[in-house]
Amino acid sequence: MGIRDTLLCSTALLTAAAASSARAADGVKLDIGGYYHTAAGVIVGEDLSSSSGVREGDLRDYVFKQKVDVNFNGETTLDNGLTVGATIWLRGQTNPRDQIKKVYAYFSGGFGKVQFGDQDSALSAMCYTVPSASQIFGADSPAVSGFNFSNAGIAGYAATNGTCYGLDSYSTQLVYFSPDLAGFQFGLSFTPDQTEDTRNVLDGAGTRLRNDAGQNSENLSAAALFSHDFNGVALTLGGGHTWSFNKEVNPNNTDPAQDTNGYAQVSVGGFTIGGATEYRQNFGDDGADQLVFGVGATYNWGLWTVGLGWTRGDYEKAVGANGVGPFNAVHDDLALTAAYALAPGISVDGLLEFSRYKSNDAAGPDSSGLGLGLGTAISF
Known about the structure:
CATH architecture: Beta Barrel
CATH class: Mainly Beta
Number of strands: 16
CATH topology: Porin
Low-confidence stretches: 1-24, 148-157
Largest sheet: 16 strands, antiparallel, barrel
CATH superfamily: Porin
Helix content: under 10%
Mean pLDDT: 83
């Protein structure tokens, strides 16, 4: 090798070393993203029983609502191919519980992806809901929910049906997602304690207290998903299960809680048809089971998407907002949705919804209503 070749080789090595050092020095830089969802609703007709605990005369017939999240995301890929990143979801509105919705770090590569921090369990993270044309409205856990006609006595006034809730949303946990293997992927997660925002010391304990009344701890979640396009027909199938191995401060020897969900969707020629279900057992007490299921369909052409979805929630040993209970109840929700894309990430959404909640206890909540909604979804 001549002097010129030696100099060129040395220069290349120095340049590569400098680039590697620069990448290491840069570390992870966060980008800002998120969404802004806003909606206005009006009640066309509503019927509340006196047992609902809320008088019709005390309620407005219209409402403005919004939901905002600001996300900070960043990652870098090391020379060995390992990708390291972090995600922080900040609530854009004051929240009495906390201001940080999710916060976790992750490592990914050919082995899959490992995440640690406050986040969803494997069951919730890999879940699909009943199809809806709108990012805001729908019959299954909508982003903006609870105009007056969505009254229920399950979790307070204006509760809604959902199929992806899980047992320990946003708890500090360890999650693993496998690589995509010909359309198949699975996930596993473990939550030692059903709390979030776990700092170095909390309530004077260096680890965590084991005497939080009714808390579901030592939760293991497993989920699987298959998604594939068969010559223009897209098929998605999946589901998961969560086991809680410990219910803290349990003088009544309540059985540990469990959660199971499943979903299926088929998309072809602008149509998407699908269904979803979730079954939470012993959610608070023996026999306090919650079964939610539903179906829906959407059709997209050009800038327009329309959809129709229905869900039913069967709630056992529910307690109303008025303190009456426990009782069994059924909540039906039928939602006609539409969305018009103004630009990528910006849409105007509409809703026509009928909701019916009925308990089997004469003293329990009983309500029905019809309402209209108009909103916009902005992603950034």
